[in-house]
Amino acid sequence: MPELFTGSTIAAIILLLWVLSWIKIINEYERGVIFTFGRLRPEPKPPGIRLVIGPFQRMVRVSLRTVAMDVPPQDVITRDNVSVKVNAVVYFRVIDANKAVVEVENYLYATSQLAQTTLRSVCGEVELDDLLSKREELNARLQRILDKHTDPWGIKVSMVEIKAVDLPQEMIRAISKQAEAEREKRAKIIHAEGEYLAAQQLTDAARKLSEEPLSIQLRYLQTLTEIGAEKNSTVVFPLPLELLSVLAPKPTRAEVTDRS
User: Fold this and answer.
1) pLDDT digit string (tens) for the chain, length 260 residues
2) Are 166 and 74 in contact (CB under 8 A)?
3) Residue 159 in contact with residue 91, Cβ under 8 Å?
4) Is the dihedral of CA 185, 190, 191, 196 positive or negative?
């Protein structure tokens, strides 16, 4: 019985498997960085079925999708000497696959370390109030710095967002007291402004009524009408205003002399 697998057949199968190992499938979101005898190919291979002749060629896959990297909480001392913990998230993507492989050993690790050091340095240059209230300005500043330093690596940083600022309990209580004092201050100012406006309006109304004596009598009758319209047991005895002027004490001659 002849042998099923001769030496030539085995060699042909091994050669076929070796040739099939050259076939690589690159996804749409990936690029293949090719090294031929250790030298970089000028352009990365686009998506599709590609041939990589091994062992003479080597391919490194690089994803072009946006990466959301979480920056661990960093201990930061602000410019006004307050110790806080700040964490953030960085959004970036590879725009040049060749640079991302050749210019830096591990672009993910390098970007993470750069984001941590930049977050500490930028937050340490501002005061606590600015860190809490000017998030957008700090985010834009962090994005510009990171994008500038990662550009030689072929990486584009699109967004940086400060997620949370953890304060000590003592500082939280102090900020709460400050906010409460500010609210009380605004309430007292608003109340004083209301009293001032009411006094101003009453002064204007009195000046207007003094121009015509009959207007005081009409206002007096209107007040009596409003009191009588309500369903109550109040008894009102209207008195003429002239009677009040008669009952008022007259100034003595000495007072008149003093005024003159």
Assistant:
1) 455 557 778 877 877 787 777 888 899 999 999 999 889 988 899 998 888 887 888 999 999 999 999 999 999 888 888 889 999 999 999 999 999 999 999 999 999 999 999 999 999 999 888 888 889 999 999 999 999 999 999 999 999 999 988 887 777 677 778 778 888 888 889 989 888 888 888 888 777 777 776 676 677 667 767 666 666 666 555 566 555 565 556 666 655 555 55
2) no
3) yes
4) positive
Do 97 and 44 meet the contact criterion of CB atoms below 8 Å apart?
Answer: yes
Q: What is the rounded distance in angstroms from the CA atom of residue 84 to the CA atom of residue 168?
A: 7
In contact, 153 and 132? CB cutoff 8 Å: no
* Nearest to 153, CA basis, from 198, 222, 104, 206: 104
CA-based radius of gyration for the chain: 43
Within 8 A by CB and 6+ apart from 234, the residues are 227
Cross-strand partners of 30: 63
CA gap 155, 101 in Å, rounded = 11
User: pTM score, two decimals?
Assistant: 0.64
Cα atoms in the 13 Å half-sphere on the side-chain side of 139: 17
